[in-house]
Amino acid sequence: MEDNEVNIAHNVEAQGNQPQHKDSISDTRNEGDEATLVHGRLFVGGDFNGHIGSSAVGYTEVHGGYGVGGWNGGGTSLLDFAKAFDLVIANSSFPKRNEHLVTYRSSAAKIQIDYLLLRRCDRRLYEDCKVIPGETLAKQHRLLVMDIGIRIRRKKRSVRSRPRIRWGALTKDKAQELEGRLSAMAAWRSSMDANTMWSTTADCIRKSAREVLGISSGRTGGHKGDWWWNAVV
Questions:
Q1: DSSP 3-state helix, strand, coil percentages of the chain (rounded to 5)?
Q2: How far is it, in rounded angstroms, from Cα 91 to Cα 64?
Q3: Rounded to whole angstroms, how far apart are CA atoms 18 and 6?
Q4: What backbone torsions phi and psi does residue 123 show, to the nearest 5 degrees?
Q5: Whole-number CA gyration radius for the chain
Q6: For the chain: N or C, fewer Cβ within 10 A?
Q7: CB neighbourhood size of 228 (10 A)
Q8: Is 0.70 topped by the overall pTM?
């Protein structure tokens, strides 16, 4: 994908019957979060203490039509927030049994107040979203998971090619020509020390090979001079 930046926002709502849903949503919707809604991938999740219900009337672009019960003030605030910032509520987008939709369960209530949101333009990324009934996180809250698939395109490394001697062009005739050139140079017959004589001989071999065989562009290819490689060798 073109942009590998992933932003994750987590909202934690206080427990109890206190009307704090508006404050929690406005806290999530600060200036920094507005910037992250424009660039990269954004995932918002947490306890919003609101009920979005099972009806998507008026909010079809953010609500998938799958939920528990009806709306309340906190739920409509969450839906308005998602609509204003082009988000979609993931756990309302897949048909599930109630046990896979209820995020908060106690002896007195079975409700849906935890939600996962992502940008509407990224809705093709999520493949599933549901509650795991047997797992609990904080008190009566159940584990809500979302399956997403993000493909990361690896950038190809640019490798500079360097000229190389075309040893693949070595044939019998060119081998004889190369042998004659090296014999005429006779670099190994000098009275220098071993290291200097070796360097001089290597330079002579490279120079003669460039003149006889030529220089390639550095691209890899098959060996064309395999005439000398046989069963005996």
A1: 35, 20, 45
A2: 8
A3: 33
A4: -65, -20
A5: 35
A6: C
A7: 11
A8: no
Q: Is a pLDDT exceeding 80 seen at residue 133?
A: yes
Element (H, E) at 75: helix 73-84
- Residue 136, phi then psi, degrees to nearest 5: -125, 150
Look up residue 136 and give its two tokens: 């609990």
Cβ 105 vs Cβ 94: under 8 Å: no
3-class state of residue 29 by DSSP: coil
- DSSP-assigned states of every residue in 164-219: EE-GGG--HHHHHHHHHHHHHH-GGGSSS-HHHHHHHHHHHHHHHHHHHH-EE-S-
Q: State mean pLDDT over 175-187.
A: 81
Least confident of 54-68, 121-135, 180-194: 180-194
Residue 123 structure tokens: 């809705």
pLDDT at 184: 81
Residues belonging to the chain: 233
pLDDT of 215 over the 70 cut: yes
**How many other C-beta atoms lie within 10 A of the C-beta of residue 192?**
12
SS3 47: strand
